[in-house]
Each structure stands twice: as C-alpha cells, then as structure tokens.
C-alpha cells in the first residue's frame, strides 16, 4: 500500500510546528524542563524499542508505535495516561496497523513484565502493574486522540530510494538507517515530512562515513535550510544522549513527572518494599499463565 | 478482558482503573466528534463488521451512512478489519470508491463501561447494485450496463494500482448514487498486497469473498493471490447485470467448484498450469471432462458479442490468464456502439432507495429446485417474489 503522502492525514493534520509543540506541552513544561522532558521521551522510546525487539516485531512497527506515542503526548499531558501503559498500547495498535498481526494478550503483558524486570528495573523496581484490560481501554483513547489517523509515512522508504539513486552503497544505507532510528527520539517526525528527514539522516551518514556526495545533494531540489534544521535537532539529541546517565537520572525524573491523580496501589516509580503482597503483581502474573 | 480474570482483580486495581476512567470521562476529545451530531433515520444494511444506518447531520442536514464498528473479539482490541478499512479508505480517494467523511464515537459513560463505540461516516449512496437488480422495474440498457461495468473496473483499477485487494466483490457491495455514480464499498475484508518473491510466497487467508463470487484459486486453497480474485467477482457481477441474480449459487465450497467447472470447464493442469500444486486440488472432487461453456450458456441472456467475450475473459479459471482491470477497460465492449451512457436518467425514474438488505429474499427461492444444475436456475424468469416491492427507506 503506497498512498500519497501529500494527501495523507500525516501531511494534512500531523505536521506541526515548533510553536504547536511548545503550546501543547506547556503544562508539562511547568513541571519539567525542556531537557528533562526530552530525556523522558528518549527513555520511553527506548522502552518501546526494547518491547518491540523482545516481541520480534519489525522496525516499521516500532517506528509507528513511537510516533503514535509522541502524537498522543503532543496533544496531552503526561499526567493523562501513564506512559508506561501507553508504550505497550502503541506497540499493540501499531502491530495491527502495520499488518504484523494481533499480538496475543498474554504475550504482550508477559513481555512488558520481562522487559521491565530485565532492563528497566532501576526505574521500576516493582512488577509491571497493568493488565490487558488497561491496554485495550488505552487503545481507545489513543485512537480517538489521533482522530484515527493511522497511516504514517516513515523516512525509511524515501531513504532506500535515495541511496538506490546514489548507487550501490550498503554501508551508507545501513548507517543512515540507524540515524533514522535515532531520529525517532527527537521531535522531527512531528515536524518534518519523511523525505526531508531521510535526506538529513543520509547527509549525516555521509559525514560520519566521510563519503563525499556533495554533487548529489547539490542537484536536489529541496529546502536545504530544513535539512539543516533536522540535522541540528538530531545532533542535539546525540549531545543530550551522550551525557544522559539513564540509570542515575531516570528514577528522579519519573518521580518528578506529572502523573495521573489515580495511581496503581503502589506507584511503581516510588515503589519500595516487598512486592510479594502487592495485589497488582498477583494479577499481572495470573494474566501470563 | 474476560470476566473471569476481572473477578480476581484486586479491589485497589479496579478502583485505579475506575479512577483513570473517571478522569478520562472529563476529557475533551477535540479530534473525534460525537456521533450524536447525526440523527439515525433507518437501518440499511449489515456490513462485515457492523450495522449500517442512514443518518442525517442535525445542522447541515447532509445525509450520510453510519457504519458501526462491532467489537466482537475483545481480545483483539480495536478490530483489525476496522483498522484496515479506516486505513485503506483514508488512503483511497477516488470517484468510484466510497468516501469516508470522518470517524465518530459515542461518549464513554458508566453505562457503556467507559467503552466508546466507533462509527465510520460515509457519503450516503441511494442504491446498491443487488437492490437494483432485484427490482424488475429497474431496466438497464446495454449502454447503461457498460457504464456500470466501466465504473466498477475503474474503481478496481484504482485500488489495485494502490496495492489494495477488495476481497469481497459482490453486487451488494457496489453502491450507486442517484446520479449514477458507482462506488466500491465495504472494505472490511480488504487488505494491502505485495508482489511476493518466489522464495517467500504471501500467506493471506483464503477464507474471504462471499462464496458465490469466490474465484477458483481461493476455493482450492491458494494463499498467495492477488488482484485477479477481484476480477473474478467483477465477472460474476457483470453476468448478473443480465441474469439479474448471482450466476453460481453454490451451497458449499465443493458445490461452488462444481458449478464453476460446469460453466468454465474442468479444472486441470492443461488449462491451468500449476493448479495441481494447490492445497485442495487433490482433496476435493473436481468434475472431469466438462467443456467450457461460458459464452454458450450466457448467450441466452447476453446478446452482445463483445460483452460475451469480456465475460469469457473475466471468468477465466487460471488467475494468471484472467484479464486485469486495465485490459478490461480497453476491451472493445466499452469502445463500440452503444457507448457507455449515464445512468442518472434511468435512475431518476426510481425515487426510492434500493438496498439488498431491504429487498425481499430473491435468490435461494429460485435456486433450490435446481440445486445441482447451475446455469438453468438463475432468476431468468422473474418469479412473483422478484417483482415485489421493497421496503422503502425514504
């Protein structure tokens, strides 16, 4: 299914500008600094990535899930729905939309439990507190908030076309592909059309691999200013990421993050003490059986 | 969620969910309007995944069709078929494809367990082809039949070039506006397809398409199929323009294949190379020694030689040899006199909506006496039932 980006809801409804982002995030930015907000977004993108890899879905599903996640929180405060619940919900929906099939309920929840336990226990010392009913309910809110705009255009497809045009350059494609993956941790997917993101990532890959394709870029009929803007944002991400010690910083950030008024009996981020008598963990384990 | 697990949920976690939902109830959903902005007028159909209503916008008075999304399998969450239909219709924008206006929802309240219902909102079309064909008072001239088929093939050409398979071609899913514009509808079974690599064939479900319109490759278990599945349906529908009822009304898959063999000739590797590799080829009982009689059997109803030739090419057993939509549109049928002509004038004589859903059952009645004898059983001599009036929507 190809479709036309310029007629899509992605282009017509979901390309925002900086001011939109600032305005929509205003209430969260009263509590968090811009940098803290970005760090939380990186953290949850990593969580979605880890879930997706554990579930063995293709990268396209992970990318779509990440953008859904960003779309939801660009329209809503972090306190509306716990991002720990929104992340698996985005994977669940994206897997259906990208024709990867329905992820079984027990598998989704047990994967969340495994990933939280093995990779994110420094932030969530207790078991993953949500059940499938929460995910299914959350899916409704996600769909509504996105106005059922499901089809996304990622930078991967134009990237492959550009590299094909340049010539046989497997290394270049590989490197640029990784930069596109990383770009999902920035806001560029909310701000720029996919072909511009692809070009920026391709350009960065050329610089990293010291390949000179100046003449190829020179012949493009694109707004190079935009490409440079995207490049700057991805470079900023790398700067931020380099100095981001997740293990040390995240527990404090999660504690500071605006949260729903209602929390599971023991908020995971502040959870202390034994989980053995924790009723939510019992429920969670009964789900996976 | 199934109820048995929810009973052993701790009270604290229930109350948590409850509180989250209470919070969400206060949400304002600026991006998905409430369905109450439309007033339901009548139920007009039953789609693959829900009921269809005729409704009117309370302010603008615009008439629309509301299709309710049924949440049958709760484990699946929002149904994948509904996601496909939304996704595909948002992508497809064409004169001959039904237009999705928006998606609406009901408000989440304690009464529906905070579960909103979604509705797809479509431009309203006055008729469906099955409804029109079941009314003997509706008479199509050859030029008008050409116009119907031309629009149908145009729609198929568009969706196929966008890499979409409809997978539920049948007269009831072909809508026609009172101005005579044809719209392919009900994309509840549709999906995107890709041209498979030889090393890795596609594995799509073959349990699609209403039995009477299902092509032989699906009946034989093919899972790596493509646009020709819709072209077979187009052929069945084209024949129906003259016979006025579906031409092959099988009662089981086996029976359907028998009917197909009796019309299109025996299914064998000679006429269809590779058919022997299909899963059910050896498991089903395929009639042998049948001659192909598409033209001679349909000649009783279809006088136009070009029409017969196109029908013959659409109802080709081997999907690889079946005509595609592009070549069908270039067929002489559409480019010889009488040329395709607008339907608006003929339809203007019928001021009432005709939908299959509202029409009296016409088909099985005619079929039963001749169950084993396809071709002779069609509603060629309209029975009393065929001439009856339909419930009216207006």
UniProtKB/TrEMBL annotation, chain A:
Domain Cyclin-like positions: 46-144, 157-236
Keywords, sorted A to Z: Cyclin
Region of interest: Disordered: 255-289
Biased composition (Polar residues): 271-289
Pfam families: Cyclin_C_2, Cyclin_N
SUPFAM superfamilies assigned to the protein according to its UniProt record, in alphabetical order: Cyclin-like
Coiled coil: none
Family per similarity comment: Belongs to the cyclin family. Cyclin C subfamily.
Protein name: Cyclin-C-like isoform X1
From TrEMBL, chain B:
Binding-site residues, ATP: 67
This protein's UniProt keywords: ATP-binding, Kinase, Nucleotide-binding, Nucleus, Serine/threonine-protein kinase, Transferase
Chain segments carrying region Disordered: 367-394
InterPro entries membership: CDK (IPR050108), Kinase-like_dom_sf (IPR011009), Prot_kinase_dom (IPR000719), Protein_kinase_ATP_BS (IPR017441), Ser/Thr_kinase_AS (IPR008271)
Domain spans labelled Protein kinase: 38-334
UniProt keyword Flavoprotein present: no
The protein's name: Cyclin-dependent kinase 9-like isoform X1
Main subcellular localisation: nucleus
Family recorded in the similarity comment: Belongs to the protein kinase superfamily. CMGC Ser/Thr protein kinase family. CDC2/CDKX subfamily.
Phylogenetic placement of the source organism: Eukaryota, Metazoa, Ecdysozoa, Arthropoda, Chelicerata
Superkingdom, natural source: Eukaryota
Organism: Limulus polyphemus
Localization in the cell: Nucleus
ATP-binding listed as a keyword: yes
């Amino acid at each position: 299914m190809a479709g036309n980006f310029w007629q899509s809801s992605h282009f017509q409804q979901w390309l925002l500008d900086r001011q939109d982002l600032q305005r929509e995030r205003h209430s969260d930015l009263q509590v968090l600094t811009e940098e803290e907000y970005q760090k939380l977004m990186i953290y949850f993108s990593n969580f979605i990535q880890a879930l997706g890899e554990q579930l063995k879905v293709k990268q396209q599903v992970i990318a779509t899930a990440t953008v859904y996640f960003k779309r939801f929180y660009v329209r809503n405060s972090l306190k509306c729905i716990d991002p720990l619940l929104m992340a698996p919900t985005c994977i669940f929906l994206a897997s259906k939309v990208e024709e990867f099939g329905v992820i079984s309920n027990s598998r989704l929840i047990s994967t969340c439990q495994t990933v939280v336990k093995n990779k994110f226990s420094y932030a969530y010392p207790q078991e993953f507190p949500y059940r499938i009913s929460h995910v299914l309910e959350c899916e409704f809110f996600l769909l509504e908030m996105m106005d059922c705009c499901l089809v996304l255009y990622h930078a991967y497809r134009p990237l492959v076309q550009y590299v094909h045009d340049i010539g046989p350059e497997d290394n270049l494609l590989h490197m640029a592909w990784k930069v596109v993956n990383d770009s999902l941790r920035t806001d560029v997917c909310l701000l720029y059309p996919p072909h511009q993101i692809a070009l920026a990532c391709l350009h960065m890959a050329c610089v990293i691999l010291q390949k000179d394709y100046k003449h190829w870029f020179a012949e493009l009929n694109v707004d190079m200013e935009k490409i440079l803007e995207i490049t700057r944002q991805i470079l900023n991400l790398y700067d931020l990421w380099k100095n981001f010690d997740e293990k040390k910083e995240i527990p404090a950030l999660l504690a500071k993050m605006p949260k729903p008024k209602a929390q599971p009996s023991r908020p995971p981020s502040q959870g202390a003490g034994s989980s053995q008598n924790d009723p939510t963990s019992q429920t969670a384990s009964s789900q996976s059986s | 969620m199934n109820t048995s697990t929810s009973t052993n949920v701790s009270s604290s976690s229930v109350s948590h969910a409850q509180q989250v939902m209470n919070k969400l109830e206060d949400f304002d959903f600026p991006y998905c309007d409430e369905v109450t902005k439309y007033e339901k007028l009548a139920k007009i159909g039953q789609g693959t995944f829900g009921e269809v209503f005729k409704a009117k916008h309370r302010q603008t008075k615009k008439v629309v069709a509301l299709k309710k999304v049924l949440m049958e399998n709760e484990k699946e969450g929002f149904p994948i078929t509904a996601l496909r239909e939304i996704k595909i219709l948002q992508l497809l924008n064409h004169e001959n494809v039904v237009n999705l206006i928006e998606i609406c929802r009901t408000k989440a309240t304690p009464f529906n367990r905070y579960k909103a219902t979604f509705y797809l909102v479509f431009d309203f079309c006055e008729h469906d082809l099955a409804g029109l064909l079941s009314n003997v008072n509706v008479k199509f001239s050859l030029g008008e039949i050409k116009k119907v088929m031309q629009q149908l093939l145009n729609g198929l050409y568009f969706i196929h070039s966008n890499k979409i398979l409809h997978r539920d071609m049948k007269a009831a899913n072909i809508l026609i506006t009172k101005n005579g514009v044809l719209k392919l509808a009900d994309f509840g079974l549709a999906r995107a397809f890709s041209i498979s690599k030889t090393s890795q064939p596609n594995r799509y479900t073959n349990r699609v398409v209403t039995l009477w319109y299902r092509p032989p490759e699906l009946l034989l278990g093919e899972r790596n199929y493509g646009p020709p599945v819709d072209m077979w349906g187009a052929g069945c529908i084209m024949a129906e323009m003259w016979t006025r009822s579906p031409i092959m009304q099988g009662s089981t898959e086996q029976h359907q294949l028998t009917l197909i063999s009796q019309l299109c000739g025996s299914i064998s590797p000679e006429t269809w190379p590779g058919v022997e590799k299909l899963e059910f080829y050896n498991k089903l009982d395929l009639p042998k020694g049948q001659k192909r009689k598409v033209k001679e059997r349909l000649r009783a109803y279809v006088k136009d030689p070009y029409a017969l030739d196109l029908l013959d090419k659409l109802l080709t057993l081997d999907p690889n040899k079946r005509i595609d939509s592009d070549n069908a549109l270039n067929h002489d049928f559409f480019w010889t006199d009488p040329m395709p002509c607008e339907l608006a004038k003929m339809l203007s004589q019928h001021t009432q909506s005709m939908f299959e859903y509202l029409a009296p059952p016409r088909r099985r009645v005619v079929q039963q006496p001749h169950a084993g004898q396809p071709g002779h059983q069609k509603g060629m001599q309209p029975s009393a039932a065929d001439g009856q009036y339909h419930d009216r929507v207006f």
